[in-house]
Amino acid sequence: MTTALLSTADELRARVRRGRRAVVMTMGALHEGHATLIRTAREIAGPDGEVVVTVFVNPLQFGAGEDLDRYPRTLDADLKLAEQAGADAVFAPSVDEVYPGGEPQVRVSAGPMGERLEGGSRPGHFDGMLTVVAKLLHLTRPDIALYGQKDAQQLALIRRMVRDLNFGVEIVAVPTVREEDGLALSSRNRYLSPGERRTALALSRALFAGRDRHAAQEALRARAREVPSTQARAEALSAIGESRAAADAHAVATAAPGGPAAVRAAARQVLDEAARFDPPLDLDYLALVDPGDFTEIGDDFTGEAVLAVAARVGTTRLIDNIPLTFGTLGAAS
User: N or C: which end of the chain has fewer CB within 10 A?
Assistant: First the structure.
């Protein structure tokens, strides 16, 4: 198939629509993570549907001192990757096409959730992001829009905007794609020197440490629940050496700190060590939050949560996260 390159809204509107349209929004500099989004969109849209990839570096979501000017622009390579992944069209408008009257006077506000974590570190970022997402949803008119879970707070805000403002579009989340060493794929990874990249691996290692601590605690608690409740069963299990193992599991599960506090502590230990690396990791935040509003969860929390981290290595700022489940819903995802 040949992927069409479109630069104006008129060109996009002129396309004959067949079946469902799935849209993948990007800022370009496409990599395998984007390719996974596009392939997933292709599967959802089906052979009779259409996949549109938007490529637009949105100036509204870059603050003072951020990397708008040096953000990579690789449209030719982006078009090739999109075509290989199954896109029917790439919509790559200019700034004037998206904002024909200059910076918009009316914008979408991200509200309180947009002021936390990423929003606290990058004031106004999410207002700019939601504004351009709203505009691109109107311009592309998709049935489905796909976003990566790597940008978990962005995904949550888009879902909230679509629900609160009655956008008629289905939002689909696609799991984070990682390199073999665990580093989450990002267009900004190309800025890292070899030494900085080694330090940057602490982000994913911290998340995995928190996940593994949680999984171990859940396994111990599950084991503790298997402790025999009757003397007869205890004697029977003792004959095969199981009662001691169950008792040990019960003791460890009872004595060891667990829950959200243990997850945070395990992740923090990795990040604290990375702060002493050369070059060092400069931590912005480590948070364990409710994905519904991105507030920190308490030790009695049950349900889905997100363990998120942001840090700077050299001049490059990176983010990452993983989902976890606490309490009655099960162990780590």
Answer: N
